[in-house]
Specification:
The complex is a heterodimer of chains A (227) and B (256).
Chain A (H helix, E strand, L loop, with lengths): L1 E12 L5 E13 L4 E5 L6 H9 L6 E6 L2 E2 L5 H10 L1 E4 L11 H11 L4 H14 L16 H14 L4 E5 L7 H16 L3 E5 L3 H7 L2 E4 L10
Parallel strand pairs in A: 3-8, 3-9, 6-7, 7-8
Antiparallel strand pairs in A: 1-2, 1-4, 4-5
Chain B lengths: L4 E10 L2 E11 L4 E5 L6 H8 L7 E8 L3 E4 L5 H10 L1 E4 L3 H4 L6 H11 L5 H14 L16 H13 L5 E5 L7 H18 L2 E5 L3 H7 L2 E6 L2 E7 H6 L4 H8 L5
Parallel strand pairs in B: 3-8, 3-9, 6-7, 7-8
Antiparallel strand pairs in B: 1-2, 1-4, 4-5, 9-10
Helix pairs in contact in B: 4-5, 4-6, 5-6
Classes of the chains: A alpha/beta (227), B alpha/beta (256).
């Protein structure tokens, strides 16, 4: 479902003497249906950069990034938006929401975007929030006031609301206690069993060993670091 | 799919000075595009040119009309263009007083747009007006009050109700949240997002607030000195800006 071929990326900082910083060269990766692949490498090696390139919020300088049938590296904004609505989900480390929108609606939104009716979407959102131990009395409040761990769980619930065929997970188990961590891992296992292709960054080694089928070390793609 | 709006090579000059030039883009149904840039960058000129308030010196603005498909709104007759701006288009001004009649009641402001497209039944018009005031969170018992007795945020919400009551397909917005305090702004953003989704609206939003476009716009266009310097997916332009000016804009935002 994901096929990354020979991608490269550099940042040009126009306001800092036009410094050019190469961050990736010769990036290669595949993730099949029902497979979970972990990106590894030291902090700054380019794990998140590669993930953002696949999601389309970083531009790719050269190479191909196929997600399903679409080459994200060359797709028009409209095609990427459509891909994100239907195919490609992303659980980032940070929750970004319109202030004052109720948690239940934040989680239901991806379902509303693909045309589910309000009642259905909310029911599914409630199910996920309950599973992730967000007390029901908080559902009508905005998640902006929640603790870090609660926000992270809302973010996960939102990422799993629509059964995307491809999922990108950036540290899904960070800042979670043991119970919630187990729930998140179960959600990931469930998605895998459904045939979802998952690419993740896990600093939590035990979690990585438990759910990932393979690891890809991005250090190989870091210019200047590659052996 | 046919684009709802097709802008080709638009240019508007003020004498020898550039208002905006070489602007081309397609906007599809349901898409929200943000236009950012500092004041004087030509973003409002562009918006007013697209909406037919200013006549461009060059270029075409084609709109997918219900009857005849894509038509160039620059060359169509004035009555046709006015009809479009009453039915399929809406324009939300930065200052609500520019988009409202201040000495007509709130209900009258909303009802007037309906009458302009042929509604005549008083009960129906009043019911629609009440419904729309509710949607923009203005209490029903304020329907007979004049907008001059409303707060700034309420005036802005009334302006939005007045604009959307006829079910337009394309909404132009010029700094819709400018000058409002942040709590009112958040409520308005939420309202706009909901309306865009429920009504399948397309919108073009001019603003200098990057946080607003991140939440509202799917795509982003960055303008400087009348030229478009960068376009792309909103989060891509904000997270991985390519042009020096965009990098400066993004890095200049204060963190809260």
């Amino acid at each position: 479902m994901i096929r990354v071929e020979n991608v490269s990326k550099s940042f040009t900082l126009h306001n800092q003497g036009a410094a050019v910083i190469p961050v990736m060269r010769g990036g290669e990766l595949t993730v099949a249906r029902g497979e979970c692949v972990a990106l590894t490498g030291a902090s700054g090696a380019g794990k998140s950069t590669l993930m953002r390139m696949i999601y389309g919020n970083y531009l790719t300088a050269s190479g191909r990034i196929m997600v399903g049938d679409l080459d994200v590296a060359r797709a028009a904004p409209r095609e990427i938006l459509d891909l994100r609505r239907n195919v490609l989900g992303y659980v980032s480390q940070f929750l970004r929401v319109v202030p004052r929108v109720a948690t239940l609606d934040v989680v239901a939104e991806p379902l509303r975007a693909v045309g589910s009716n309000e009642a259905e979407a909310r029911a599914r959102a409630g199910e996920l929030l309950a599973q992730l131990n967000i007390p029901q009395r908080l559902w009508q409040l905005s998640p902006t006031t929640f603790s870090g761990g609660e926000q992270q769980r809302v973010n996960i619930a939102r990422g799993f609301a629509h059964p995307y065929p491809v999922l990108l997970l950036d540290e899904p188990t960070a800042s979670l206690d043991a119970t919630n961590r187990a729930t998140v891992l179960a959600l990931i296992e469930e998605a895998k069993a459904r045939g979802t292709a998952i690419l993740g960054i896990f600093h939590d080694e035990a979690a990585r060993d438990q759910i990932c089928d393979r690891e890809v070390d991005v250090t190989r793609f870091t210019p200047g670091l590659a052996a | 799919m046919t684009p709802l709006l097709q802008v080709e090579n638009i240019a508007k000059f003020y004498g020898a000075r550039i208002g905006c030039t070489d602007v081309s883009f397609d906007l599809y149904p349901g898409e929200v595009m943000g236009i950012v840039g500092e004041s004087g960058s030509g973003k409002s000129t562009l918006l007013n040119t697209l909406a037919g308030h200013l006549t461009p010196d060059r270029g075409a603005v084609r709109f997918d009309t219900r009857a005849d498909g894509l038509r160039d709104t620059v060359t169509m007759s004035e009555p046709e263009r006015r009809m479009l701006s009453r039915t399929d288009w809406a324009f939300v001004h930065q200052h609500a007083r520019d988009g409202l009649r201040m000495n007509v009641s709130a209900g009258g402001n909303v009802g007037e747009r309906l009458m302009a497209v042929g509604a005549r039944h008083y009960g129906d018009i009043r019911a629609s007006a009440t419904d729309w005031l509710g949607r923009v969170e203005i209490n029903e018992d304020r329907i007979d009050d004049r907008p001059s007795a409303f707060s700034g945020g309420m005036q802005q919400r009334l302006q939005i109700a007045r604009n959307l009551v006829t079910g337009p397909r394309l909404v132009f917005m010029d700094e819709p949240t400018g000058g409002l305090d942040v709590s009112v702004q958040a409520r308005l953003l939420d309202l706009l997002r909901g309306l865009v989704r429920e009504m399948g609206l397309s919108a073009i939003i001019v603003t200098h607030d990057l946080a607003v476009v991140r939440l509202l716009a799917d795509r982003l266009m960055v303008m400087k000195d009348g030229h478009v310097v960068e376009t792309g997916l909103t989060d891509q332009v904000l997270d991985d800006p390519q042009h020096g000016y965009t990098q400066l804009l993004v890095s200049s935002v204060l963190q809260v």
